[in-house]
UniProtKB/TrEMBL annotation:
Pathway: Carbohydrate degradation
GO CC annotations, alphabetized: cytoplasm
UniProt-listed Pfam families: Ribul_P_3_epim (PF00834)
Alphabetic keyword roster: Carbohydrate metabolism, Cobalt, Isomerase, Manganese, Metal-binding, Zinc
Name this protein carries in UniProt: Ribulose-phosphate 3-epimerase
UniProt keyword annotation of Membrane present: no
Phylogenetic classification of the source organism: Bacteria, Pseudomonadati, Pseudomonadota, Gammaproteobacteria, Alteromonadales
Source organism of this protein record: Pseudidiomarina taiwanensis
Gene from which this protein is expressed: rpe
Length: 221
């Protein structure tokens, strides 16, 4: 069986109790903390920055933190997030003027690097950077908000990226973000994803463990 990772998006957590929320979701069986950074410029919403990432580390969170940058420009945020304890940093290629340089900056800062594709962003951005990627993140909603519905064309795109990853012979995570729920996670895995971001599906339920277990049961089926 593939080694699947479940990454709750803290965008749907209770920010007034963020440390406890992250602890709870990790105790409930999550693998990775998905940390959505929005700048009200690249996307129409404003969220959290490196101070909050550092606060989670200072609180005692040791799990990997997957920082999804929805900001423009990208580069000036990289060192700040690396210093704040980020494990993975991903960004949208449209938001960076020099994609190869941004990826190299992430790696030089000691983090894993990834590119994020909006639903209608073409995959040609992968062409000359596969050797620098640890993660490819496909958005299955248009970024900016939690609680949106999964866009079905993502399945075809996942299959295309899965072929490219397998053809590259490299071990690159294929992450999917947006509208992932217990009732579609198996189909998304069958299309090639192996890392699943879920915000509202987990945090809007009273029992995080029950949702995460139900997701894992679907992935094992
Ligand atoms: C959307 C964010 C997502 C969001 C997912 O721009 O990147 O990570 O929190 O939320 P759900 O799982 O509710 O679609
Ligand atoms: Zn995200």
């Amino acid at each position: 069986m593939a080694d699947y990772l479940i990454a709750p998006s803290i965008l749907s957590a209770d920010f007034a109790r963020l440390g406890e929320e992250v602890e709870a979701v990790l105790a409930a069986g999550a693998d990775v903390v998905h940390f959505d950074v929005m700048d009200n410029h690249f996307v129409p919403n404003l969220t959290i920055g490196p101070m909050v990432c550092k606060a989670l580390r200072d609180y005692g969170i040791t799990a990997p933190i997957d920082v999804h940058l929805m900001v423009q420009p990208v580069d000036r945020m990289i060192a700040d997030f690396a210093d704040a304890g980020a494990s993975i940093i991903t960004f949208h290629p449209e938001a960076s003027t020099h994609i190869d340089r941004s990826l190299q900056m992430i790696k030089d800062a000691g983090c894993q690097a990834g590119l994020v594709f909006n639903p209608a962003t073409p995959l040609h951005y992968l062409d000359y950077v596969m050797d620098k990627l640890d993660v490819i993140l496909l958005m299955s909603v248009n970024p900016g908000f939690g609680g949106q519905s999964f866009i079905p064309s993502t399945l075809e795109k996942l299959r295309a990226v899965r072929e490219r990853i397998d053809g590259s012979g490299r071990s690159i995570r294929l992450e999917v973000d947006g509208g992932i729920k217990v009732d579609n996670i198996a189909e998304v895995a069958a299309a090639g994803a192996d890392m699943f971001v879920a915000g509202s599906a987990i945090f809007n339920q009273p029992d995080y463990q029950q949702v995460i277990q139900a997701m894992r049961a679907e992935l094992a089926s």
